[in-house]
Amino acid sequence: MIVWLNGTHGAGKSTTSTLVQQLLPQSRVFDAEKVGETLMDITPRLPATDNFQHWPPWRVLVVETARHVLDYTGGTLVIPMTVLVEQYWREISSGLAQHAIPVRHFVLHADQDTLRARIAGDTVLGPDSPFRLRHLEPYAEASRIWLHAEAEVVDTTHLTPAQAALRIAEAVKN
Questions:
Q1: Which pTM was predicted?
Q2: What is the mean pLDDT of the chain?
Q3: Are 88 and 59 in contact (CB under 8 A)?
Q4: How many Cβ atoms sit within 10 Å of the Cβ of residue 112?
Q5: Of the candidates 117, 147, 84, 142, which has an alpha carbon nearest to the alpha carbon of residue 12?
Q6: Pairwise CA distance, residues 138 & 84, whole Å
């Protein structure tokens, strides 16, 4: 099984994924961003883009990597990865379905004020990361149009990462 943690940058996916992994027996965290980083290292470079998710190989390689890891280890993969383009989510989720891999798709949601405050205090990318701020509106749009309808929404506005992880782990176990 895959537990996919979606949501905008700064929503707490990485922190929560580590905590979810600790709560689910035989689970591992797979950071699909590493697949994008590998593609960015190809020389000469792939066609220019501001987001490696726009490269079709990224989506296919995420599916194939997840499939092979699950074939090898069994258990559950917890994947903390923002996917805001509906077509990309459809490609990934249908690719996983073709291999009979069940997916529990969660969105870590927080209101815009909370997200801005978290981004302002970010110690990983630094305060007021332009990268993270740039994704707030696309996240809000995706939420309105398709994302919240496609996933189980966990409102983290007033939750700690540990509380969010517990809700997700309990939902997966039930």
A1: 0.95
A2: 96
A3: yes
A4: 12
A5: 117
A6: 7
